[in-house]
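Consider the tokenized backbone below.
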């Protein structure tokens, strides 16, 4: 099998576009001044639901590679209302132990290495649906 970009994207999409509890999700810090129900499109780094199931915001900071306190108000979870397509994301995904897909320089304390959760970066806005807000001390189910 030849591993060209088209083949590699097809392999990535087979891992990305699965059903619950492996569906693609985007986690963002909860902002009490913003109604997450109003968010209809989202971009940026995303992963799969299995990485956040059963976890509290305090744990996700370590798992996803956020500075302590980044999820001070908890987190909002969004899923996508359509499958992710090959043109939506960059093939150069990463694991959270490689912040931004690079070796950690030890200087950027906002994005320390996480525990190795796979993630991909959307390069376009993708339609989404709000799933839940998880306050500190609570678990995502």
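A designed sequence for it:
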């Amino acid at each position: 099998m030849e591993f060209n970009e088209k083949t590699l994207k097809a392999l990535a999409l087979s891992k990305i576009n699965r059903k619950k509890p492996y569906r693609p999700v985007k986690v963002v810090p909860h902002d009490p001044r913003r109604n997450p129900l109003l968010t209809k499109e989202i971009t940026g780094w995303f992963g799969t639901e299995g990485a956040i199931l059963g976890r509290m915001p305090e744990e996700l900071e370590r798992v996803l590679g956020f500075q302590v306190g980044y999820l001070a108000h908890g987190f909002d979870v969004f899923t996508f209302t359509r499958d992710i397509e090959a043109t939506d994301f960059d093939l150069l995904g990463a694991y959270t132990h490689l912040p931004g897909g690079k070796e950690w320089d030890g200087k950027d304390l906002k994005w320390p290495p996480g525990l190795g959760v796979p993630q991909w970066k959307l390069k376009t806005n993708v339609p989404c649906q709000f799933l839940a807000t998880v306050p500190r001390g609570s678990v995502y189910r």
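The chain has a mean pLDDT of 89.
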